[in-house]
From TrEMBL:
Alphabetic keyword roster: Pyridoxal phosphate
Protein name per its UniProtKB record: Uncharacterized protein
Lineage: Eukaryota, Viridiplantae, Streptophyta, Embryophyta, Tracheophyta
Pfam families reported in the protein's UniProt record: Aminotran_3
SUPFAM superfamilies to which the protein is assigned, alphabetical: PLP-dependent transferases (SSF53383)
The organism's place on the tree of life at top rank: Eukaryota
Source species of the chain: Rehmannia glutinosa
Amino acid sequence: PYTGPTAAEILTKRKEFLSPSMFYFYEKPVNVVHGKMQYLFDENGRRYLDAFGGIATVSCGHCHPDVVKAIVNQTETLQHSTVLYLNHAITDFAEALASKLPSDLKVVFFTNSGTEANELAMMMARLYTGCHDIVSLRNAYHGNASGTMGATAQCNWKFNVVQSGVHHAINPDPYRGLFGSDGEKYAKDVEDLIQFGTSGQVAAFMSEAIQGVGGIVELASGYLPAVYSSIRKAGGLCIADEVQSGFGRTGSHFWGFENQGVVPDIVTMAKGIGNGIPVGAVVTTPKIAEVLTRRSYFNTFGGNPVCTAAGHAVLRVIERENLQENAHVVGSYLKERLNALKDKHEIIGDVRGRGLMLGVELVTDRESKTPAKVEILQVMDQMKEMGVLIGKGGFYGNVFRITPPLCFSLQDADFLVDVMDYAMAKL
Ligand code: PMP
């Protein structure tokens, strides 16, 4: 049994010693003391089904034994920066990662986070093209350093500091967007942006395949092929931010961008790649990678053997346990059940996403799509009381984000929907 500090004690210390900007879910936040696969346990040994751990980095399941073993073994053998000396952990993982990417995408730069990966990708695109202008999407989240905060486009995540050179295109959001699900019309906006907002030449276009923080917004079909073509005509590179949608999460494909049939020039990843260990990566072509030879480029912990051993173990688990296939099967079933729930509860305005990256948007009125900001908190709290932890996001904070570890089962899907059904009925 757990004998550590209580939730109340931790909360008091957190208020005194940690950043005042930190926030938490639930009126009474959960003190998680232990995790096992798709479950989390609180201080009283109470079990919760974790339907959000995937976004907070856990792809194969909390404390997956194979990943833990790889981390422990490597920690006992060597923990050091692998920049200056040779070690096989980094090369083995880089090779395995490259084998998962299409085309000539095979040069890997390791980082410690998604922000760092996107910062590096943006810098490389600028160096490669000699241009500064980058196009990203409204409602995107790409990180919290100056470049990536510039590319992020939701005012609640942006501080008022210099973030130069990013243009934010109209979001190809099939539910709330200006042009419905007409991907080509949204793509035309990017063409206009290039012509009227830049010199006609750009460094890059960067986007998620499914916006995560933005509330599981799947880009309108046909959008990426058209935009990639306009960007390339303007001399720019196409960057896919796979921090949330990568590693089999969308089920039908290993990478989110594959759902639109495009091949990016640079792919960035983090979160689920380490199953809880801080590791990120940028993968690009040998030709683009050359730009970093112009100066020294150094990242102390990027690609250290403990993190790369963990990442490599994650890839092996995803393959051995068919987790991508599981995301497809369980995700499709879950989406079907959520759609049936939409027929029952007026408050559900939209059900969307792919695989185990699903969103349920709550509105008080389906016609005006007024965000149900208060109701979502009530449902979320009630679900927690019944043993299900679920995520929340979207610009208005009214979208449930369902992104569980990829080992989520059909029974888990049933339990989640039954609990959500009950909580909504109680509203
Ligand atoms: N890109 C996307 C799509 C993200 O969701 C996030 C984090 N929410 C980031 C980048 C930044 O990653 P990190 O928090 O590891 O810096």
